[in-house]
Predict the structure.
Amino acid sequence: MATDDVTAEIHGWFAGRLPGEWFTGAPEIVRDREEIAVLGRLPDPPGDVPEAERSALIDGLARRFREETRERRIEIAREAEHKFRQKVSWGVVCGGRTVMFTTLSVPVMTRLRQSERRVLDTLVAAGVARSRSDALAWCVRLVGKNADTWLSDLRDALQHVDRVRSEGPDVNS
């Protein structure tokens, strides 16, 4: 089954399985090789709430949702993990903030040249990161934040390549 087909199946399954009252719209499903992240939108706090109170209100709304839905989310995640053979993580989007409840932290091996290791060591020495691993994760988050449009275009191009591949001739015959 092509990647697009599996992703569409996952979207459909969660759309049919999640209680309609949980989120203000369809949840965003983000999928990679190891994990399916389900991100639901909660109602935004009123616009007239002061900023300091707004941040605490968003934290409280996210925490309340997490506690009130825990048992059902675990049940749904177990079903999805069995069906799709991937771990499921959960989060909410509220007031422009994303709050993740559970996520995987997957080790990734990489080879770095000395100049690249020096970048990581500088971040550790400056206290930006606790370790080379944390420094590398920090760098990846920074690139992701600052190259969002480029990465989005690249993902779209990869999806197009997957579609073309799946429509091509059968290489096994």
In short: Residues 125 and 131 are 9 Å apart (CA to CA). The helical segments are 3-17, 51-84, 114-125, 132-146, 148-167. DSSP finds five helices and four strands in the chain. The longest strand covers residues 87-94.
